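Aim 2, interim progress: modelling of the magnesium ion-bound target.
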Amino acid sequence: MAEIGTDITKAAQLLRDGQLVGIPTETVYGLAANALDADAILRIFEAKGRPHFDPLIMHLPDADAVKAHVCDITPMALKLMDAFWPGPLTLVLPRQSHVPDIVTSGLDTVAVRVPSHPMTQALLRQLDFPLAAPSANLFGHVSPTTAQHVHDQLGDRIPYILDGGATTVGLESTIVGFEEGMPTIYRLGGLGVEEIERVIGPVHLMLNQSSDPKAPGMLKSHYAPRIPLHLGNPSVLLLQLEGKRIGFLGFNLPLRAMTMERQRILSPKGDMKEAAHNLFAYLREMETMDIDVIVAEEAPGMGLGKAINDRLRRASVQ
Ligand code: TXA
Ligand code: MG
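Predicted structure of the complex, ligand included:
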């Protein structure tokens, strides 16, 4: 069984030995391995039970370290690095040839990011290689936001989990690439679109690329909760689902007609950051409730609300 602890030196040694370690980031917990060791990367896919090889994100301590693995950094990419690293932004850039194919799924680009979590910053600085790290959940499950979540799903498959507390952002990083020079968002996430546009101007959105081999891994329905989730107007859904035991995932207000035991409110004060922080943990809790269906309402569609709604849509019955 995996040990949960705070020993960064131990984590570094395991990673040097080609082993897997659960690591905290500000977004979600990652399942990390040496990104330059193809055998170690294979273990990531085995442990997660991924049916196919999705490209992974390489994590590095700072922009200078990133520059040793990518090429053709445009002025726009530089602006984004300066503005948002370390932080919840992943950039997709042309890769250098030494980056293993198994990290990029054979693409000529690689996803790179500089996480801000102090524990993982310290870990990356002890290593002379980048860490490839997908979210530390089993395939098809919601991303973990605590060390215990990682332990629940992967505890019997990895030796060590670094415990850095509950993640602050709670949503995966926002992924930005460049399509013929145009900035393009491949995944909504912990950095708001508006914040990006404030720095580089208008960006395209290119989501749900499941049929496009250029962006594998962006499956439309990536995560399906164990209990079916319906997204929409709560009063309409409550009528439609009459007779079923319903749980409610609300944005800021509870339903008066329902016992609080079956409700989770993402942010009673209507704060988008708090809502993002709570989303995955609440979905996990609701999966263990004695209910037949989850009714969820959308967050207001601005800032992180866009990413929250994206995850809710992917989790919902289509
Ligand atoms: O916040 C995060 O990004 C977390 C933490 C652990 O850093 N990591 C994470 O990794 O969410 P993962 O593997 O669950 O998601 C990586 C996404 C995939 O959807 C994949 O399609 C996309 O990144 N991706 C990776 N390389 C790519 C590339 N070269 N081009 C386009 N998309 C890429
Ligand atoms: Mg994931």
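Residues 3-205 form a domain with the DHBP synthase fold (CATH 3.90.870.10). The chain has a mean pLDDT of 94.
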